[in-house]
Structure formats: structure tokens, C-alpha cells
Amino acid sequence: MLTLINPATGTVLATLDADTPAIIADKAARARAAQPAWAAAPVRERIAALRRFRDRLHADVEPLARLLSEEVGKPITQARAEIGNTQRLEFVLEHGEAALAAEEVFADGGGSERITWEPLGVVAHVSAWNYPYFVAANVLPPALLAGNAVLYKPSELATRTGLAMVERLRDAGVPADVVQPVVGGGEAGAALVEADIDAVYFTGSYATGVRIARAAAPRLLRVQLELGGKDPIYVCDDVPVAETAAAVADGAFYNAGQSCCAVERVYVQRAIAPAFIDAFVETVRGFAVGDPLDPRTYIGPLARRPQLAVLAAQVADARARGATVRTGGAPLEGPGNYFAPTVLTDVDHAMTVMREESFGPVIGIQVVGDDAEAVALMRDTEYGLTAGVYTRARARAERILAAMPTGSVYWNCCDRVTPRLPWSGRRHSGTGLTLSTHGIRAFAQPKAWHLRG
């Protein structure tokens, strides 16, 4: 049995039956049987179904946004923005057919060489709760367009949101056995990885990603892991201070900081540090914390109650090691999983808040002397998802960003994803990629044709 709790109130939203290993095995068998016919259908029929799915999302933004807010505490304005922003799906609709088209790479009088793309087969998608629609858009549209069947396990925290997506995919014309939901928590996820599948695409924590990789290794399944980050931002001494502070604060606190690419560490050059910190703290103090269904709310509750203890421990550790709490610093009293937006200064890398993922509304700001010190500190992490720099000088920014061992880098922006560029992590931030034409081809396998007359 799966019990869904409203993180803003602590009340029960629903109870659902979780899928057993036997049920999951049966779903995998039905997906295996249905996939060849789906792959044999003309690609434009699959595109048409995905286009109808997009239209259903746009038509149902309001009820879907409310459901998402109730399940994970996302402020309603942010929930609407996530559901209504279908750019990732639009990119697949526009570029998918060409990305998977056959390509003749060589020809002479005696023959030719050609590359074609074939579906993987049955794809398992173990998804995340923090951005259910964005994460699903990274996997479901390209996987289905490529001719795969998909077993989609939404996070147990966003199960009804996941079921609503599957319902609309089926209403749009995707056969029921081609896209099937898997309901449950960690046990269901583990059973799904053990089922008769060809690939697993996971978004979540590093620890769970490692377990999935180990479980998949004996069968040499294709594995993609989109994991966490400890994403740094460096603020140089030539920036407009107030504007930059507001932008970086939004990158750190949007969705209550519950994003793999949220700003998790800030380094600011000493010459502007006092003014930047003051502006940053003022911005954070202005963020409205409250009911996620209130359109004025900017920061809602944490989706996971245990994360309150993680954040409290990071703040306590920082304080014990000499950090200053400039605002916030503790869970808020009353119902719900609320943690006060927290800014720490006088921090260093001896503190867990600067080394371990926070995934909540807590940020440390460290003062640095120059670019070299900033680069060394930004690189001091096991994660490798994103890194950014704010400066007026493009050449300076590109020099710094070239030294970052991360999948994405930002100049004068942060916490940003575009469907035109690949999304990937390094080291503890994961393996494989989604998005861009490379992300479409990630759900297919090439076949090399050597043809001689």
C-alpha cells in the first residue's frame, strides 16, 4: 500500500495499491509483446500521438498543476510553468524523425555504407518527484517516438501526477501496453530493474543510482543515471551587484532549492562581497513562504519530510565550525515540511553545507580572493553537473568555465536547461545524457549496413 501525504499540511491525499514484483513482471511481458507493432507503425503516427498528448497537457494545466502542488508542495505558479512549458516535447516533435533517419555515409560503384536507428525495446523509466513533467519529458517522448515500449515508475511522492501523464498518453493514442505505469516506492523500482527490460533511465540520488547500476550490470542493460549536483556559482568583481544577487538567489531557492541543477554553493570575490551578501540576503528575506496553492507563494514545503533533518544538521555543522546564519536556519513551526530560507556566510569546505548536496532552501556564500581560488574551490567536489560564473568579460568567463569538469556551464545565468543542448553529468552526477538530438538517439541503437552489389 502506498500512502500519499500532502507536504504542506501533513494530511493524507490518497492510498494506492503498490505493484508487486509479479504484477511488474506481467507488465514487462505485455510491453515486450506490444513493442514490435508500435515500432512498426510509421514514425509520423507516433509523432501525431505525442502531439495530441502535448495538446492534452495544455488543455489541463490547471487541474494538473493543482494535483502537482498538492503532491510535492510545488508553488502553484511554478507548477503551472512546468506543465505549460512543453519545449522539450516540442523539440522531439520537430527533430525526432530527422535524428533517427537512415543515413548513407559512403557510396561507390560497388556498394554503400548506411546507418539506421532501431529501438532499444522495453525501456524502464524510474522518475523523480521534483520536476515530474520535465524529467518525464526527457525520457517518455524520445523513447516512444523511437519505437520503444516504456514502463514508467513515477516517484512515490508524485504517483498521481505520473498516472495522469500515462492516462493522457493513452488518450492521445499510445497503446495501453506500450506505456504502462508502475506504482510503488523503492521495492517497486528494484523489481522493475530486475524485470525483462532492455534499458533503465533513472533520475534521483547518487546512492540509488549506484544500486541501479550494480543491479543492471550482470545483464549489461543500457543504463542512464541523472543524479545530483553540488552546483557552484562564482560572482566576479565586475558585475552589477543587486541584479546578480537576485539572479543567483533565484537559482538557489526556486522550487525550494529542490533541483539537481539548483545553485548549491556561491563564491564571491572579496571586493564586492559585503554588498553582494547584503543584496542576496535582502532578496531571500523577500521570498514569500507559505501555502503552495497561494499564487503569492515563492517557497513551499519540502516534498520529503526527512530532508528537514538533513538541512538542520548542515546548518548546525556550519555554525559549529564558525559560519554565520544571516537569515533562516531552522524548520518553521506548524504543520507541513517547511524550512526557513537560509543563507550562511563565513563558510568553508570543512563544512558539509559546502560539500554535500542540500536539496533544499539552504545556501552557503564563501568569499574568495581571485579567479584561481574560485576555480580550485568550484572543482573541489565529487559532483559534476553544472557550474556558472557571473562577469561582464566573456573571455574571462570562458577561461573559467573551460576548467569546470561539469556537463553544463553557465555565463551570467544559472539553473537552466534547454532542449537544444545535451543534459549530462560527470562523476557522481551520473552517466549518459538526455535532450538535444543526442538525447533522442539515446533511446535507439545504431545498425551499420555494409552493402556490396
Short précis:
Helices cover 40% and strands 23% of the residues. It is α/β, with parallel strands linked by helices and 453 residues long.
Mean pLDDT: 97
Q: What is the overall silhouette?
A: globular
The end-to-end distance, rounded to whole angstroms, is 61 Å
Please outline the major beta sheet.
7 strands, mixed
Radius of gyration: 23 Å
Task: Provide a descriptive summary of the structure in words.
There is one protein chain. This protein has 453 residues and is α/β, with parallel strands linked by helices. Helices cover 40% and strands 23% of the residues. The protein is built from 15 helices and 22 strands. Helix 14 (394-402) links the parallel strand 16 (386-390) and strand 17 (408-411). Helix 2 runs antiparallel to helix 5 (87-99) and helix 3 (61-72) packs antiparallel against helix 7. The longest helix has 20 residues, at 21-40. It is globular, with a radius of gyration of 23 Å. 50% of the residues are buried.
SSE diagram, text form:
Layout: E1 2-5, E2 12-16, H1 21-40, H2 43-59, H3 61-72, H4 76-84, H5 87-99, E3 103-108, E4 111-119, E5 122-126, H6 132-145, E6 149-153, H7 159-171, E7 179-181, H8 186-194, E8 199-203, H9 206-216, E9 222-226, E10 231-235, H10 241-253, E11 263-269, H11 273-285, H12 306-320, E12 324-327, E13 342-345, E14 362-368, H13 371-378, E15 383-384, E16 386-390, H14 394-402, E17 408-411, E18 423-424, E19 426-427, E20 430-431, E21 433-434, H15 436-441, E22 444-452
Parallel strand pairs: 5-6, 5-8, 6-7, 8-9, 10-11, 10-16, 11-14, 13-14, 16-17
Antiparallel strand pairs: 1-2, 3-4, 4-22, 9-20, 12-13, 15-19, 18-21
